[in-house]
Structures are given as structure tokens and as C-alpha cells.
Amino acid sequence: MFQVITIGSALVDIFVHSSQFASQSSERDELLCLTSGDKLDIEGFRVFSGGGATNTAVGFQRLGFQTGIICELGRDDLAQIILNDLKRERVMTQLVIAEKKEQTGGSIILVDQVGGRTVLVHRGAASLLDTYDISPFWLSQTRWVHLSSIAGRLPALEKIFQTLTRSHEVGLSWNPGKTELELLRTHQLKLSEIPCQIFFVNQEEWQLLGSVQAEVLENFSEVVVTAGKAGGMVYVSGKPAWKFLSQSQSVVADETGAGDAFATGFVSAKILGHSTRIAIAWGVKNAGSVISYYGAKLGLLDRDRLIRAVAEVGDIETRLETENLS
């Protein structure tokens, strides 16, 4: 029934824009300053569904895969925003958990006049996935599972990995959050027991892994370390194999969905049997399209548009400055 299942968070993101959000530099940081008690006029606000599970579910569905999603919501108005978006995109929601006593998670993103962002997050139900929310049957019946952060819920993670270890024909890609990275760094999760084919982290997260980096490279077939505008590196079988740059954009509206878009494009290409070089190109073009829009879904490409976008750059290896280092 499902070709891909995504697992992770589901949130509502509210972008608030105002030229009256003042910034001030301190010794350590750039501060967003508001006067207590003031009533500020804002230029506008936008509401989107977000979270790693919903972003990637829509991404895979647009790229032609029948996609289901495992995430946790409350039974409130915010949950309905998320469900409406998923259904509009034809993502199958049978595996979504809706708990009456929980509150759907959300974030408020304050955007100042120069595009700086301050994010206020309440994860709510998105951080409460338990073992009984994970269906071994459905995980064993799909072709691929894409796992994003589930707030370090160790029993749920162990159940996912144990199920997929027994289901040899199901692929797994994983984009962990900081809590999951800490579980890896402290060996609460054993890397040798995680059947992950493709592992995604950004440069900051890669550094957090510290002394277990070598073990990650040893156990996961492909490790993708992204570095924002600087592109990133793909390690294959433990060795640096491909270096790439991101797609330059004249207008960048919102970078928050770039990682999910890259992962969706990269994994989709691999599911279809394409090379790592083509997977990088799909990831780069998908991410480049997403950051041109607010929210993590509006710019996601369908398969035909993605193939055309990649074809337009001609020699991908040269135009994307992808360099074979092996």
C-alpha cells in the first residue's frame, strides 16, 4: 500500500514579519529586541504545516511515491491544518496518531527587516511518539522508510530499527535531531544495530558526533554532510566520495525546509536506482527550489519538473561543481 513511509514531527509554522523587530549586537550574539508591553504593527504572517515527517512525506508524494506518514498530533485546530495539507497533497494519513489529551506542536518564526529569524517552538504531541505508535506490519510492507527527528524517543527508535533489521528488503534513510545524535554519541544507540543506508546531518550536527564519526562512516553506506550555501560532502563506504555546492539563488525566502527537500530528492533518486551523482543533483535542485518560497513545501518539485531542472544544467558534475574525490 505504501511505497515510502516517513516518521517524525508534524508542526504548524507561523511566520511573522515586521520591520519593527529591532536587532542589536552583543558580545556573543545578534539579539532580537522588542519593547515589553508594546503593540507592534506587522507586515504580514503566513501559516504552513511543517516538521520533518510532513515535509518529506509531501516531497516523496510529489516525486511519484505512494507515501504514508507516522506522526503524532492532538485533536485540535492546528492538527486540522496539518491533516488538510497532507490530504491535499494525497499523502496517506491512516498511520497518523491523534491524541485527545495532547496539543499539536507548532512554532512561531519572527522575521526581522533583514531576514533574520528567531524561532519559538512548542513540540507538543510531535515529541511523544511511543512504541505502540509504531506498526511493525506497515513498516515491513513498504519499500522505504525515511526517519527524521522524534525527540530522542529511545524505545520508539529501537522498535523502528529492530523492525527494519528483520525486514531486509526495506530501505532506511535517517536525518536525526540533536537528541538522537546525543544517543549515538553516548552509545545509547548502537550504530551496528541500525540498518541505515543513507544518513543525513548538517555540518554542525556532524561535529556534535565527535568521536563516533568514524563508527558512523563504518556502519552506514552513505553519509551526507550538508553545509548550507557551501554545499556538502557525501561519504560512500566510509570514504569521502563526492563534494558538491548548493544552487546559487538570487532570492532566498526561507531556508528552513532545505534539508528536508535535499534529503527527499537524494533518497528518491536512490530508490529509483540512480547513481550518487544524480542523487546529489536531485537533492540540490529540490532544495534550491524550496528556499525560493516561504514554508518547506511550496517549492517542492514533482518528478517531471525535477528531471527537467537537472537536465537544464547540462553536465551536472561541472555545473554543480560536483567533484569525485575517490
Explain this structure to me?
It is built from eleven helices and 17 strands. It has helices at residues 52-62, 77-88, 136-141, 154-166, 178-185, 203-209, 213-219, 258-271, 276-290, 303-312, 316-319, and strands spanning 4-7, 11-17, 22-25, 30-33, 44-50, 67-70, 72-74, 97-99, 105-111, 117-122, 144-147, 171-174, 198-202, 222-226, 232-236, 239-244, 323-324. The strands form four sheets. The chain has a nine-stranded mixed beta sheet. Helix 4 (154-166) links the parallel strand 11 (144-147) and strand 12. The two termini are 39 Å apart. Mean pLDDT is 90; it is low at 315-322.
Using brief descriptors, characterize the structure shown.
globular, nine-stranded mixed sheet, single chain, alpha/beta, 326 residues, 17 strands
Shape: globular
Task: Please outline the major beta sheet.
Answer: 9 strands, mixed
Radius of gyration: 19 Å
Neighbour order of strands in the largest sheet: 6-1-11-12-13-14-15-16-17
What is the average of the pLDDT values? Answer: 90
Counting DSSP E segments of at least 2 residues, the number of strands comes to 17
Q: Approximately how much helix is present in the residues?
A: 25-40%
Poorly predicted segments:
315-322
The sequence of SSEs as H and E is EEEEEHEEHEEEHEHEHEHHEEEHHHHE
Distance between the termini: 39 Å
Alpha-beta classification: alpha/beta
Number of helices: 11
Strand content: 15-25%
